[in-house]
Write a structure and sequence with these properties.
CBS-domain, Tetracycline Repressor, domain 2, disordered N terminus, mainly alpha
């Protein structure tokens, strides 16, 4: 069964309709050895994601990481190893709130409690029902699952075609705008295009490679920006690594292009140099735009998942066209 997007109606459903009983419950005064014996006695077909701790009144008071049950001394008390700060959902929460929690906190499950803090059950990411897409979703990587969850919540905020049109169309105007600018740039460099036809023939190739590398770069950095607290140090390491990778990819593409370049009658060595150098430069600049523009949009409180693509492509088309025609003019007409 394919993964589905949730409708606004489904997202407004109470979490109590999709929660399951928790079979793995411990108490703070138990030892780890006693807890392990108790868990072994309970035969359950459920996937054990988290082990919750409740007091004698069934109030949720902690969660025990599995590693403590496996590696810590059996004589230690559960209250010594449990994490007391537990992220939970109230019984009146909706599935939209559950999805937002899973996406923001990267949780695989969340306990549901009533107004007294008593544990009622748990809602899991990997549910065996239609709402979550059944077992098929388990074949997805964890990061893809969280991206799907976040995207479902965001899209459900746009209930009508007209609202979605207003949400998406302004960003697509960027592509129209960039096309007009590229046409204007081409008119400025019309001399080289008129005299050396092969330069015009390779414009689509340069733009396609530049757009592709920028989208790859954007895809690489978006997971960093989708976290509650952006790890900027790791983000900039990723940007620098991506920039160096783009240099190697650009050189490879230029070399591959050079092998087949002289199949064209109009080809010359200077034209080969112009096209190859333009590919390398435009791909490096495009990779930088693809990495950095989502961060700037994130800092401006705009959704980089929606806005980054059109904005990046707009700038990449304009800059790649300008680089290609200016380099070609400099090499071939001066």
């Amino acid at each position: 069964m394919a993964i589905q997007e949730l409708s606004p109606t489904e997202l407004s459903t109470s979490v109590t309709q999709y929660m399951k009983p928790v079979a793995t419950i411990l108490h703070p005064d138990q030892t780890i050895a006693e807890a392990c014996d108790l868990l072994r006695e309970h035969e359950t077909t459920q996937t054990v994601t988290y082990v919750y701790v409740v007091d004698r009144d069934n109030r949720l008071c902690g969660v025990v990481p599995i590693r403590h049950l496996i590696f810590d001394e059996g004589s230690m008390k559960i209250e010594e190893v449990m994490e007391k700060k537990v992220i939970s959902l109230s019984s009146d929460a909706t599935m939209k709130e559950a999805f937002q929690l899973f996406s923001q906190k990267k949780l695989l499950a969340a306990p549901v409690v009533d107004e007294k803090g008593q544990l009622l059950g748990a809602v899991e990411v990997f549910q065996d029902n239609e709402l979550w897409g059944g077992r098929h979703i388990q074949t997805q990587t964890r990061s893809n699952v969280f991206q799907f969850i976040g995207l479902s919540v965001e899209r459900a905020k746009i209930p009508t075609i007209s609202a979605e049109y207003r949400f998406r169309m302004p960003w697509l105007v960027c592509n129209i705008f960039s096309g007009l600018i590229c046409a204007f740039i081409a008119s400025i460099f019309s001399e080289v295009l008129d005299l050396i036809v092969i330069i015009a023939m390779f414009i689509p190739l340069v733009l396609t490679l530049s757009e592709s590398i920028s989208m790859q770069s954007m895809t690489m950095v978006l997971p960093y920006l989708n976290q509650e607290k952006v790890p900027w140090k790791r983000f900039f390491r990723r940007v620098f690594k991506d920039w160096r990778t783009a240099l190697v990819i650009g050189m490879t593409c230029a070399a591959v292009m050079g092998v087949s370049f002289f199949l064209f009658e109009e080809a010359t060595k200077l034209a080969l140099i112009a096209v190859g150098l333009s590919i390398i430069l435009s791909m490096m600049v495009s990779a930088f735009f693809g990495s950095m523009l989502p961060a700037l949009l994130h800092a401006a409180k705009w959704d980089p998942k929606v806005a980054a693509g059109p904005v990046v492509l707009m700038l990449v088309d304009v800059v790649a066209t300008a680089i290609y025609l200016s380099v070609s003019t400099t090499i071939l007409l001066t």
